[in-house]
Amino acid sequence: MVMTTMTEAQLASAVLMIRPVRFEGNPLTAASNRFQQHSGLAGTEQNRLAQDEFDGLAAALRDAGVTVVVVDDTDEPHTPDSIFPNNWLSMHSDGRAVLYPMQATNRRLERRMDVLEMLVDRHGYQVREVVDLSHYEASGRFLEGTGSLVLDRPHRTAYACLSSRTHFDPLGEFAQRMDYEIIAFDALDPDGVPIYHTNVLMHIGEQLAAVCAESITDDAQRDAVLGSLAASGHDVLELSFEQLAAFAGNMLELRNADGERVLALSQQAHDSLTAEQRAQLHANGRVVTAHIPVIETSAGGSVRCMLAEIHLPGTA
Q1: Residue 204, Cβ neighbours under 10 Å: how many?
Q2: Strand partners, 150
Q3: Mean pLDDT of 136-144
Q4: Dihedral of the alpha carbons of 41, 43, 48, 53, in degrees to the nearest 10
């Protein structure tokens, strides 16, 4: 049964971040994540540097007027990728929270109901229903949150590149239960390897979208993605493969307390853009960058992956 869903704003004004305590490159995710590289650092050093990078991003977002809720990870169980909460959790303005099926067995341990309880008890948000899709793990089918899904919330459209981490069955249940249209497509890197998550090749903000269109190999699928973005009124910034490799697609637009758009991305991503593209970003709103090379190299994810948008309603 589909719950009637209210119109939802694209931009959240608050984010959840999980501060790592045992961060390191995850060997169980390396096979499908071509962005993940061996850093050459010991685990304790990776964690120390990742914590510094994490704190820098959280501080930059707060300075820009975005509400940041930080929760510390736990020592046990060991969850090396806990810094990426958007893969196991998405939150919606009708009070629903969605839990997702994860490919790597140690990533499944990141799902923490105490985090949702803390958002309710300490921060005054409402969680009216938990939609749990994690049962697909038992049959080897996965959908890794807003890594697998790039959501156009006002237009109820979810974009998804298919990979070993994004399968049709959980996509279909997400669409049915959350009242979304799915635009699924195949996307490959220059070596012909499937791109592991949609949110490294694509971003959708309120007005500005970015996409590495050349990674979408099928002409009809590419036309469908670009046509949908045009129909929803988005200005599209097209990214190159080189910019995709620098995580230029992995950005997230938020709204600060003054109602201003805030676009968050890594320093590497920002530096990869042309002067014209940077001007387009800065004309769209305030731009926040963070230098996170250890996180990007060791874990193969960037700024957007670190942020789970809090769209939940408040209790007031």
Answers
A1: 24
A2: 159
A3: 98
A4: 70
Q: What is the pLDDT of residues 222-278, one digit of tens each?
A: 999 999 999 999 999 999 999 999 999 999 999 999 999 999 999 999 999 999 999
**Does residue 213 have a pLDDT over 50?**
yes
Q: Which of 205, 209, 275, 197 is nearest to 238 (CA)?
A: 209
The encoded tokens of residue 73 equal 């990870």
pLDDT band for position 39 (50/70/90)? low
Q: Please list the alpha-helical segments (H only) found in the chain.
A: 43-63, 113-121, 145-148, 168-178, 219-231, 241-245, 267-272, 275-284, 293-299
Q: Count the residues in the chain.
A: 316
What's the first-to-final CA gap in the chain, in angstroms? 28
Letter string b/e over residues 25-34, b meaning 16 or more CB atoms within 10 A of that residue's CB: bbeebbebbb
Q: How far is CA 28 from CA 81, 103, 256, in A?
A: 10, 9, 36
What pLDDT score was predicted for residue 36? 66
Q: What is the pTM of this model?
A: 0.94
Distances (CA, A) of 49 to 17, 211, 226, 285, 292: 16, 30, 38, 29, 9
Q: DSSP states of 203-240 as a string?
A: EE-SSEEEE-GGGB-SHHHHHHHHHHHHHTT-EEEE--
In this structure, which amino acid lies at residue 16?
A: L
Record the tokens describing residue 38, joined without a space: 């061996």
Q: How far apart are CA 225 and CA 80, in angstroms?
A: 33
Domains and CATH numbers, the chain: 14-309 (3.75.10.10)
